[in-house]
């Protein structure tokens, strides 16, 4: 997609950066980033089919309470707490009376709750290895759920199976499980379609109000996950918006009002994200006139304005500051999601007239570029301002095993690439030094991630800040020397990695 940060590593992106910086090794750095990400976000081995013993009743209730009370993204929970606790109570009652019979959906669901709850609970212990122990314990229960994934899709075909798959997708959204969220989310959406959850039942169905509301909640949470995941990876979305008729979610199925408020806004944001991708696709598939481009930008800016006006009253989308006392007890992570998602949408819209490789794809001639000069300047301003807000919000990010990948990886990387492009395009701006300082904030953020999660490696986040600094010096000194001293690695990279971005879709 136009705003996808890895577009920097495309052939035209590499060519532009090399021309701007004179850095002879940027092609290798870009290949490194693609290679690191493609290796990181896909499975490397078969999953362990040996199942972990489930917790005893007292521990199961501890994990359940932790999941429902402490999860930072409760608005994305497809399981009402009261319903689950009633089912868990019955589960242990039947176990005690030796009258228990299991189903695949219920097995996967409760084990994913155990996984998420134990991960939250164990990570809080004051122990040197608390992070690692929480990951190991949580993932062992999650392996139980994964062991029945095929049965969920092919055999059970129930609404509980849909909920279980969606719950599994949200579990893998965290940094402690680096792959599968796109695949699981896609499977959840397809199975939900087969159950008709995307369609509003006709009045003659006479379904109870509570049933209609739960169907709506499940569908729209799956929809949000699908749209945001597709936008991050530049992948196709699932069900077409024109095929969806189910009512928007209402409040009664949420334990906390702010979860409903955040979900409602997130659904609208996801719908707009989908509209943006579709509209930009239409523009890119033809040779647009300047009027086509201006009309497109005006339409999309109207959508962004609508999204901003409808944001929850306790959230300021333009502020780079995080409130220390969030009203109603709204988790900081939920506010980060709202703010960063909005600014990612801004970047998605405006990067088409900011990234040089995107502009080249539009096939604009010199006259058209002159005609669009004011729009391109406005798009540049919007992109850099959004990037600054996202990076400044990093101060509110706490890395735990349950921290979402959008918060830890994708949003900061998108902001970093935008800032890098802006600095190279405008090396004489007064804000350049502070922008490079913000780039180093992102590099520090990824340094900490590498420290706490040993499997991670993002050296290019440091390389981009150093390269931007050297490029500014080169531009201001008026020299045309290549930046030999910026070389970060002598490793020879197979550049086929650049052409294999589809590996990131798992």
UniProtKB/TrEMBL annotation:
Q: Which GO molecular function annotations are given, in alphabetical order?
A: DNA binding; DNA-binding transcription factor activity; zinc ion binding
Q: Any keyword Protein biosynthesis?
A: no
Q: Does the keyword Glycosyltransferase apply?
A: no
CDD domains the UniProt entry points to: fungal_TF_MHR
InterPro entries found in the cross-reference section = AtrR-like (IPR050987), XnlR_reg_dom (IPR007219)
Q: Which Pfam families match?
A: Fungal_trans
Origin superkingdom: Eukaryota
Ranges in a coiled coil: none
Q: Which GO terms describe its biological process?
A: DNA-templated transcription
Q: What is this protein called?
A: Xylanolytic transcriptional activator regulatory domain-containing protein
